[in-house]
Amino acid sequence: MNVIVCVKQIPDPALPGELDPDHTLKRDVKLILDESDMYGVEMALQLVDAAGGGEVTLVSMAPNSEKGGLRTALAMGAAKAVLVSDGSLAGSDSLGTARVLARAVERAGGADLVLTATESTDGYTGTVPGQVAELLGWPSLTFAKKVDVADGKVTIQRQTEAGYDVVEAPLPAVVSVTAGVVEPRYPSFKGIMAAKNKPIDECTPSDLGLSGDQVGWSGARQEIVSVAAAPEREAGEKIEDDGTAHERVVAFLEELKLI
Amino acid sequence: MAIGKVLVFAEADGAAVSSATLELLTKAREIGDAVEAVIVSADAAAVAPQLGEYGAAVVHAADPQGRLSGVVGAAALASVVASSAPAVVLCAQSYDGRDAISHLSARIDRPVLTNAVDVRVDGDALVAQSAMFGGNTLVDTKLTSGQPWLVVVRPKSFAAEPGGAAAGEVVSLGDLELGRSGEAAVLDKHVEEREGPQLEEAAVVVSGGRGIGSAENYGPLVDDLAGLLNGASGATRAIVDAGWVPYSKQVGQTGKTVKPKLYVAVGISGATQHLVGMKGSDTIIAINKDPEAPIFSVADLGIVGDATTVVPRIVEAIRARG
Ligand SMILES: Cc1cc2nc3c(=O)[nH]c(=O)nc-3n(C[C@H](O)[C@H](O)[C@H](O)COP(=O)(O)OP(=O)(O)OC[C@H]3O[C@@H](n4cnc5c(N)ncnc54)[C@H](O)[C@@H]3O)c2cc1C
Predict the structure, then answer these.
(1) Looking at the predicted structure, is the pLDDT value of residue A173 above 90?
(2) C-alpha A172 – ligand 1 centre gap (Å)
(3) How much is the pLDDT for A23?
(4) Are strands A3-6 and A113-117 parallel, antiparallel or unpaired?
């Protein structure tokens, strides 16, 4: 079974986020693999293992030719990657991104299953999985907290407000996985060394047959009209517990008329 | 100034329309000349009165027939877009809402603005405001594509107020063209048990984070206090991922948005992804042993201390009052 995982390389979320002058997230910094994507990579590796053959391929899009994050996922065990990279991709919205990823899936030779995270850590639109599925003409099964593949079908437990639904579809299909679907492995030293020589097929939107008005700012068809700091919440009273802090809390609850 | 017809993707659990849907309908009345809704339900007649009361004059209904509501919703929205050209489509940042809008977006080739916390009309354009970086930066964006403009709104962004109109007129959409997206079948539904008020509706929310120490401590340090205050208990993603509590309790970016009168954060660091789901609360109490924890920057009352000793004392003191 062949599985393609859509992965994103993002600025380190531990660092404070910054905006470029065009108001998009600053991305010409060192990019790392989005932690949310490690679950999809791990899930894919386990599914291919369980199927007894096949390989895991990564597809990714970046405005610069950053590969560090891809190397992390290759070190986990993915076999190869397609990286769509071009300055014209800057400013792409979720639909533009989905167009690129759907074409990259085709360039990678298609697959039985495409896995994604439910949303990226930096952009968090949560719309790319459904858009990729619709563009490929495949079913999408989103918010999976458990994934099984058997007899040409994928079955998931789909997170809902109240619990979960069991959802099934014939392959090929797109599945988005939540954090916690599996425990991602740490790349081994051997994996890290092997990743250095794994193939990354670098291409541009035009190699994928996409025109300039389908990606980047012009494809996004939106305009940022203003950026402002949100009104800050004021920090109030802060006390160190000396054994009596609970009394202050109880008094506070009384003031709020909650007790 | 109003902006033409607004179509709302409505969601309901049986006959109970979701509060996020009622919020969207309220906003739709404000920005639109006409409001209609799409609902994926086998019994649209049951929800039409409430949808109408909040503003939907027409309720376009699609039968899920065992398929995913969001995916059927996308086809239903596409069909209404084709037949009556709404200016705007609004849906909630929910599971089914995201399925619906993402399939619709690719299907009709329109961009989507997500994570909106406000929507307003500016001249002949629609401006959506969304919160970035965990809510500390507000970005106003205008769509320059053709209509309909697709916007996904975070629940609890605005109040829901009935407009007092009669039940919406139910129009059945009949067979819809789903293509392969319709091959995803819902085989079974599992509902996790819950007692007490619902997280999104509760006036008091007590949430626990990794600082409570263990799954066993969730009862005494979180549930007990929530119970005494007639509230609901919540959690951070860290302890949901650790399997201490079910996902339905998660508050934050990828969980629920809550706006109670009081939010009590027990052993929670205050990551931006958690803050975005709770910092609209009227009052916040935080208990954390690290004086530098970011949660204190949004707390009206911060207790620097060990939750495993402070919370039981609070619980005991409230119980002692009888
Ligand atoms: C894409 C994405 C989406 C996310 N979505 C969400 C979301 O929806 N909701 C969410 O909550 N998180 C979310 N997160 C995770 C978020 O970034 C944090 O990792 C998480 O909120 C941290 O949870 P925590 O506060 O329980 O744990 P920690 O950050 O580990 O904090 C534990 C805190 O407990 C304190 N503590 C320890 N012992 C004690 C004690 N005895 N008494 C008192 N205090 C103590 C510590 O000082 C610390 O501040 C998301 C992350 C990503 C990348």
Answers:
(1) yes
(2) 36
(3) 73
(4) parallel
